[in-house]
Amino acid sequence: MGYNIRTIKDIKPYLVRELIEIYPEPEINALATIIIKTLFSVSRLHAITQPQDPLSKKKADEIITICNELRSGKPLQYILKETSFYNCVIRLNPHVMIPRPETEELVDLIIKENRGYRGEILDAGCGSGCIAIALAVNLPGTKVTGIDISEEAVRISQENAMLNNAVVSFLLTDILNPNLKSPGSAGIIVSNPPYIPESEKVYIAKNVFDFEPHMALFVPDSDPLIYYRAILKMAEMVLIPWGKVYFEINEAMGLPMTGLLKSTGFSSVEVVRDINGKDRIVKGIKSKNG
């Protein structure tokens, strides 16, 4: 198969031919653009203006390997072992979720609402570290800490921080039983915790269900807000009065989350819709006596 891939120009037609039964052509073209940019460290413009750049046999073989993995349903981000998130390069492994566009919206909201903030930020359940790192890079002067129960998540978060020249502390701890020994002084807590009820597994895309870590996705049907309640309990100790919380949420949980924040001493509670019009973010401010 490799003899058909001699130049950059050959990559997209090859992938279309091999993957058209699995993916729609626009998606294949998007995948091809990411593959070219990652494998050859060139811009989209370069790929267009220099399509005759020759490929080594090694690169052609890499393209074939990637194509075969895509045919299995494996997400491209796991195949390439990295993705882009809010202009940061985030390396991935099977122990952490692939960052989503709606999580970029969460980060964007925090940055826009907190320009000039120079205090502490806590990212609860940091995963790949994408949220903590993007905030540290874009809110200079802040002190950002990420926590996660997974040793692999903490390790790759630390690697990603170095990769992006971001100063972030990552700690191994369980949100449900945190070992944060001393009261903190965080002015912002952010979290994108697991929020998909177990009963919704049947609706999850196969490539997500088969390849992404279930621990980062699913919560018990009997207590879908378990992580939010635990983080709000943590906030009693580590969040300063008038400090803010920002949560990414299940689109069906806007009302319950609003009620939860208000019942735990938060005011100015607001649900923010994502680009698709779904309830995706809830935010609030800790009342002085909350």
List the main descriptive attributes of the protein structure presented here.
2 domains; Rossmann fold; 290 residues; single chain; seven-stranded mixed β-sheet; 40% helix
Structural class: alpha/beta
Our Rg estimate from Cα atoms comes to 21 Å
**How many DSSP E strands?**
11
Give a short account of the largest sheet.
7 strands, mixed
According to CATH, the fold-level topology of the largest domain is Rossmann fold
Strand content: 15-25%
The assigned CATH architecture of the largest domain is 3-Layer(aba) Sandwich
Name of the CATH superfamily of the largest domain: Vaccinia Virus protein VP39
Following the backbone from N to C, one meets helices and strands in this order, namely HHHHHEEHEHEHEEEHEHEHEE
Please work out how many helical segments DSSP would assign: 11
Give the averaged pLDDT, no decimals.
90
Q: What share of the residues lie within helices?
A: 25-40%
Globally, the shape reads: elongated
